[in-house]
Amino acid sequence: VTIGVLDIDMNMAAADGVVLNGYTGTFTVSGTTDILDPGQLGIEITGNTGTATFTGVTTIDGASDISIYYHAAAAGTRDINFGTVSVLNRGAEGLAMGAVTGGTVDVASLTIPNPSGAMTVTDAAIDVSSSSANVTFTTVDLDDATYGMFVSGHTTGLVSLNGGTINGTTMTGVEVRDSTSVLVKNVTITGTNSSDYGVVVQSSTGDTSATVHNVLTSNTQFEGLYAPAFSTNMVSMDLRISNSSFTSTAFDGVYVRANNAMSSLCLNISNPGSNNSGGGAGFDGYFLEQAAGTFTLDGFLGDGTMTAQVNAHVTGANTGTAASSTATTFTASMPGTCVTPAP
Predict the structure, then answer these.
(1) Quick one: how far is CA 115 from the chain centroid?
(2) Among 62-76, 92-106, 204-218, which stretch is predicted with the lowest mean pLDDT?
(3) How big is the CA angle at 168 (ends 164 and 172), to the nearest 5 degrees?
(4) What pLDDT, on the 0 to 100 scale, is given for residue 120?
(5) Which of 312, 178, 273, 286 is nearest to 224 (CA)?
(6) Of 181, 176, 106, which is closest to residue 139 (Cα–Cα)?
(7) Closest Cα to residue 172, out of 119, 120, 225?
(8) What confidence tier does 80 reach under pLDDT thresholds 50, 70, 90?
(9) Which residue among 163, 164, 212, 282 is least crowded, i.e. fewest CB within 10 A of its CB?
(10) With contact defined as beta carbons under 8 Å apart, do 184 and 210 qualify?
């Protein structure tokens, strides 16, 4: 099916703008897509093994529920492609996907300004959960959400946020939770001094691997980047931080913590690319804490029981003060030990 221009003006309760359910072929809108006042979802894609392409500018205005929802797609090869997307006056998530197995999702440009409704803590501008697909956002402009982008339970395939700005979140600019192969790069995250964090990367119930590259955070109430590994399920977290800058109004710029006896954390903060990080009064640019479990430092060849050597490893490759705390020892390793996506 190929459509030139799609223009839908609804103003109807409990109705979706576009629903692609269980299709196996190709659906294409070659021109613009305008969906005004859908009573529930703006665009819903579910159960498909086909390809959907929205080539031109897609505008969804006034969806009372999720504006773009892609879910419950069984294993198979499929492609979902959007050009320029603008989500206005959303009632819930701007773009959400869940339980998608295989295939790709590509969004060239996504703009989501201040929502009209009262957001709950789960209403992220972008929400990717419990999926295994290659997901790419080339550039975004996200404003005034609880989370800018929230990724959880992603098991296979690369989730990549390749550029843009995130402003005014009340919780976190980007949060990665129990997800493998997540890349966040070339993004500026500006809080409002009441925003909790710029970036959070954590493992609790599943393996996590993430790269944060060329990211700038500022005006956060807590850490610019917070990365706790506190799993009780013998899972791992690998994190690379490079060429980025983090500032906090009141806490450490970067805080990475192995928190539980079952925690297995690997941190690459030195090779390659330096970071610039600053904390609030009385805090540091970088604070590394091995409270329990295993905390491996990629490229650190010193004595892990000597916090001075750990601090020197951090400040030798980065700008800003460093502090560390260890219950037993940081684990030395050769460069390239952490397994993270390339920036």
Answers:
(1) 19
(2) 62-76
(3) 80
(4) 56
(5) 286
(6) 106
(7) 225
(8) very high
(9) 282
(10) yes
In the chain, what percentage of residues exceed pLDDT 90?
71
Q: Which residues of 4-38 are buried (b: 16+ CB within 10 A; e: fewer)?
A: eebeeebeeeeebbbebeebeeebebeebbbbbbb
- Which structure tokens are listed for 102? 């295989």
Two tokens, residue 182: 């997540």
d(CA 267, CA 282): 24
- CA pair distance 50, 72, nearest whole angstrom: 13
Please tell me which residue, 297 or 91, carries the higher pLDDT value.
297
Helix (H) or strand (E) holding 69: strand 68-73
Q: Residue 283 pLDDT more than 80? A: yes
Does the pLDDT at position 47 exceed 90? no
Q: What angle do CA 173, 256, 213 make, to 5 degrees?
A: 50
At which residue do the structure tokens 């060239």 appear? 108
The DSSP letter of residue 11 is -
Quick check: 290 and 297 in contact, CB under 8 A? no
Gap between the Cα atoms of 339 and 267, Å rounded: 9
User: What are the distances in angstroms from CA 87 to CA 27, 44, 61, 62, 157?
Assistant: 21, 14, 6, 8, 26
Cα(34)–Cα(59) distance, integer angstroms: 5
> Average pLDDT of 223-236?
87
Q: Which residues contact 206 (CB under 8 A, 6 or more apart)?
A: 153, 155, 178, 179, 180, 233, 235
CB within 8 A of 118, min separation 6: which ones? none
- C-alpha distances out from residue 107 to 44, 111, 129, 211, 229, Å: 15, 11, 17, 20, 31
Sign of CA dihedral 109, 153, 221, 114: positive
CA 20 to the chain's CA centroid: 26
Compute the distance between CA of residue 181 and CA of residue 157 in angstroms, rounded to an integer.
7
Kindly report the pTM of this predicted structure: 0.95
The two beta strands, 286-290 and 264-268, are unpaired
